[in-house]
Amino acid sequence: MLTRCNDRILLACLGGALGGLLVLTAPHSVAAQAAPAAATTPTADSAESATYRASIEEAVQHFSAGRWSAARSAFARAHALAPSARTFRGLGLAAFYLQDFVAARNAFEQALRDARKALPADQRSELERLLALTVRETGRFELQVSPQNAQVMADGAPVTEPVLVLGRGAHVISLQAEGYQSLRSELAVHGAEDRALSLAMTEQPKSAEPEPGLAVVSPPPMPQQHDGWVRPTLPAPAATKHEQHGRVWAWVTLAAVPVFAGTAGALWFTGLTKHDRIEKECTGLCTEAEVAARVKAEHLPTYETWTNVALAATAGTAVLSGLLFLLEDDSARDSRTAGSLAVIAAF
């Protein structure tokens, strides 16, 4: 999110933005004044043009009143009828003030490239300044995926473009492809990234299958011969309850060690990310009271407390696991030895 200092800059741009938005309707007003006075039969184009003008006027009214969502919807209707650099600009401004910086960045870049109703120099300068702010709030990643036909998902939404733009924060990138093991990767976006993102999947192992038409038959076990007589085959001694389970609690506590350690690492990394962002955004711009309010709002003391708790749990479970490995007896091994001796004694 943008800092309070940046908000002052953005609000200062609001007046210029409103003035520029009004330009969207200007060409249609001039054309209406120059139209012949004689009434003509309405056409589909004139009805569409009237709908476009009505949508633009509605969007400007909502925008001037600070109703960003409603302005965005009205701009979208106008854009569907007659897309141009100016409708892209309106969509971008509405998304910007809604703090949807990914959509704002995409719309601003389209507005600066689109030659239809190209923006004048002052509006281009304004948009380039706002685009620079959205770049600070987003990351741009050029996808390099193997295999190339893999289906890419970002936070559960399908990705169809080779370039992925994401807002600040933690994201999950997943890949799926036939004949490959599914891939899931976590991506932390800090802002202003512009780099390649390589993701390679692993092929699924191919299981050996018998040839069709051939049946694999195992011969029956041969009876044991001993000096001319058949030695009876005794059943193996039944496993005891302890033998079936082994050192259950020792393994359970050992498995809990990486869980607690991973939790501590995730909490520490999240808290550090929030701290670095506050430090970056408020250095030389915010008062101590504002910094303290940001720290409290981001719950940094809570992250620190739970990180320490997770570290303590990691150390405790590691020690407990070692003790259980030492204290649990080997009665399972002793029972197997006793069973073997009983079989030998039968002969």
Account of the protein in words:
With 347 residues, this protein is an alpha+beta fold. The chain folds into three domains: 4-26 and 46-136, Alpha Horseshoe (Serine Threonine Protein Phosphatase 5, Tetratricopeptide repeat), CATH 1.25.40; 139-200, Carboxypeptidase-like, regulatory domain (Immunoglobulin-like); 241-345. Helices cover 57% and strands 14% of the residues. Residues 1-12, 25-42 and 335-347 have low confidence and may be disordered.
Task: Give a brief description.
The chain has 12 helices and 9 strands. With 347 residues, the protein is α+β, with helices and mostly antiparallel strands. The protein has 3 domains: 4-26 and 46-136, Serine Threonine Protein Phosphatase 5, Tetratricopeptide repeat (Alpha Horseshoe); 139-200, Immunoglobulin-like (Sandwich), CATH 2.60.40; 241-345.
Topology (SSEs and partners):
Elements: H1 4-22, H2 26-34, H3 44-64, H4 68-81, H5 85-97, H6 101-113, H7 121-136, E1 138-146, E2 151-154, E3 157-159, E4 163-167, E5 169-176, E6 183-189, E7 194-200, E8 224-226, E9 229-231, H8 241-245, H9 248-282, H10 288-297, H11 300-327, H12 331-345
Parallel strand pairs: 1-7
Antiparallel strand pairs: 1-4, 2-3, 2-5, 5-6, 8-9
